[in-house]
């Protein structure tokens, strides 16, 4: 499934606290058409399960993927960077054959 780094876990927990999300919320990770490489990543918080959702948990963080996204994201690591090159979540996807320079879209 999808794993997260300690930095991503800390940022997710901070966002959940800042937004007053309770324990019913989880991180929804998805892939959608778009971006300069054809597919782009989408990450948000949700508390409603949809038909076909696949759940996993890493480092105490509950992660949800729809079945289509699961096929593209299996084995992906979610990281968080706040360095000089930019601030935000980063996806390290072993299934991607090409990524754009900004790292927000990919193709398989």
From TrEMBL:
Residues 2-104 form the Core domain. Transmembrane segments: none annotated. SUPFAM superfamilies: HesB-like domain (SSF89360). Pfam families: Fe-S_biosyn (PF01521). Gene3D superfamilies: HesB-like domain. It comes from the Bacteria. InterPro entries: ATAP, ATAP_core_dom, Fe-S_cluster_asmbl/transfer, FeS_cluster_insertion_CS, HesB-like_dom_sf. Belongs to the HesB/IscA family. NCBIfam families: iron-sulfur cluster assembly accessory protein. This is HesB/IscA family protein. It comes from Sphingobacterium suaedae.
